[in-house]
Amino acid sequence: MDKSVRVLQEKNLKNTHARQVVLDLFLQNSTPIAADQIFSYLIEKKCDIDRATIYRILDTFVEKGILHRMEFQEGKFRYEISGSDHHHLICEKCSSISDISDCGISEWEKEIRSKKGFLVKRHSLEFFGQCSSCQS
Amino acid sequence: MDKSVRVLQEKNLKNTHARQVVLDLFLQNSTPIAADQIFSYLIEKKCDIDRATIYRILDTFVEKGILHRMEFQEGKFRYEISGSDHHHLICEKCSSISDISDCGISEWEKEIRSKKGFLVKRHSLEFFGQCSSCQS
DNA sequence: TTACTTGCAAAGGCTTTGCATCGCC
DNA sequence: GGCGATGCAAAGCCTTTGCAAGTAA
Questions:
Q1: Cα-trace Rg, chain B
Q2: Residue A36, SS3?
């Protein structure tokens, strides 16, 4: 796994153990991950990294555009590797998260610019409901 | 202001002073309001209602469908009176919030149902960027 | 070497909970 | 009168911050 090393270099970030571990986790799981899931992962991996460090790494990665930060109405943030523009289907029963691709929100954004004068930098779109397995 | 009284009756909720005050605030302001804004409003109005009570009222109103709960990536919840299906333009400079009407997300929802088997109950869509006054 | 990163400990912000009291219907 | 709502105090999460020590480049 030296992809993480490469990414850190590209972004002019020092290559530290903590950053590599966190970045590898995100590179291996392209699903939105919350801080507490990172903590559990680290305990399981017997990897002793402080919470404050994790939060600082997450902030740095978001600033550098490596991660996206999002909220799923849980009262906490989730983070996902940047890249494909897509949205999420969040099951309110089993909490599973799946993706759907972006089907043309950027068209709206142009319209918003011309009609409202508002310049859209980013958007968030999430769907909440029940996944196919949870509909009995 | 007996609209609030009517709403509470319709929802089978006891008509208490705290609920009326909170509901009136939302009926008079159809913009997303956070709990701390309610606290400030109450202080200004010299209205002594406990924070716990406010949070409990907000939960009740969301359960009953009187309010919608949403997040604008601020690490806290906002609430807005239910009704028209619309989305928000959030200015990252001046924090102003404006509305745009729903332009067809419900079409997507049908598509999601048929293609993915996922049953959408609700969705959230927010646009972040700069309002017209903040673009210099 | 030097500026950046980390750990530790503490605090901060938002929200929830338990329990006794109060008040609407 | 009875059940539900409220106040008070405490705690629970999630996250941030200050500072000293450690470390990559």
A1: 17
A2: helix
Give protein residues whose Cβ lies within 7 A of nucleic acid chain D. A 14-17, 34-36, 51-52, 55-56, 58-59, 75-77; B 13-14, 16-19, 48-53, 56-57, 60, 75
Dihedral Cα A119, A122, A125, A126, nearest 10 deg:
-150
Question: A97-132, pLDDT tens digit by residue?
Answer: 999 987 788 889 999 999 999 999 999 999 999 999
**CATH ID of B3-81, from 1.10.8.60, 3.20.20.70, 3.10.20.70, 1.10.10.10:** 1.10.10.10
Q: Is the dihedral of CA B14, B20, B23, B24 positive or negative?
A: positive
In angstroms, the separation between the Cα of residue A132 and the nearest Cα of chain B is 5
pLDDT tens per residue, range A112-121: 999 999 999 9
- Taking all atoms of strand C, which protein residues have CB closer than 7 Å? A 13-14, 16-19, 48-53, 56-57, 60, 75; B 8, 14-17, 34-36, 51-52, 55-56, 58-59, 75-77
Question: Which chain A residue has the Cα nearest residue B103?
Answer: A108
Q: Which CATH number fits domain A87-129: 3.30.1490.190, 3.10.310.20, 3.90.650.10, 3.55.50.30?
A: 3.30.1490.190
Q: How far apart are CA B88 and CA B100, in angstroms?
A: 6
Distance CA B68, CA B26 (A): 11
- Count other Cβ atoms within 10 Å, centred on residue A113: 15
